[in-house]
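Open question from group meeting: does this chain pack into something compact, or does most of it stay loose? Before anyone orders reagents, we agreed to write out a predicted structure and look at it together. Recording both the input and the output here so the notebook holds the full record.
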Amino acid sequence: MNATWRGMMALAEFEGRRSMTWSRMGLWLVLAGFPVAIVLLFVIFGDGPMSHGPTRDQLMQVMIFVLTQVTVALSVLLWASPSLQVELENRTWIYSATRPYGRRSVLLGRYLVALVWSSTTNVTSAFLCCMIAGLPSALLPMCGLVLLGCAAYSSLFSLLAVMFPKRAMTVAFAMSGIDFGVAFIPAMIRQFSIQYHLRCLLAKWMGQETEMGAEVSMFLSDAWAIQHIAILAVYVVALLAMAVYILERKEIATDDL
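Structure tokens returned:
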């Protein structure tokens, strides 16, 4: 375990330094600024910065949630899904795979890098959106939802990167769309959707459950917030464990691109 931890942190530190490029920083700014720009335009041209009310605040909360979750999926898609493919393209996989606990260190280290990049991007975006919208009370819930989304999607896309190293980004993009769609199916299958649990947490933390009609309530859950958080935590651990298990037993050629 100590060797895995040291290897993971060493790779995360190395990748963190190497990824501090102008192109990465520009991409960070674009992803962080997209929700901010939409909210700013809505505040300026939609309702004016001083017009507040229950309906307006609820609309802004939902808008910020949707926008930040879209950027969560996009940022994790860019930083987590190509994790194994990068090792193959750089011809470093043979060295990494032959090191003690090298495979899991690569996987977990790149998961940590993707989590840090996506979290900083989207927490910054959520903070600015809440401040611009005049909703300081929504700051902590939105940041919490962003962090949970980043952790869950990073684990899912890391698993897909191991299973489909050639087409990781394509499969991850399709899975993110499926996850968004499954969240609106009023059946047991929605329990496997990340967005379903995040949406339920949004309604609970923002106190919107009692104000929603029956048509909307059918897409939510009566479970406590801690239950949704626990499910997402189990989701993350289970997916990472599956990714490690598969990667430890997977034969990957260096030309498997």
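Observations to bring back to the group:
The longest helix spans residues 102-133.
Residues 2-249 form one domain.
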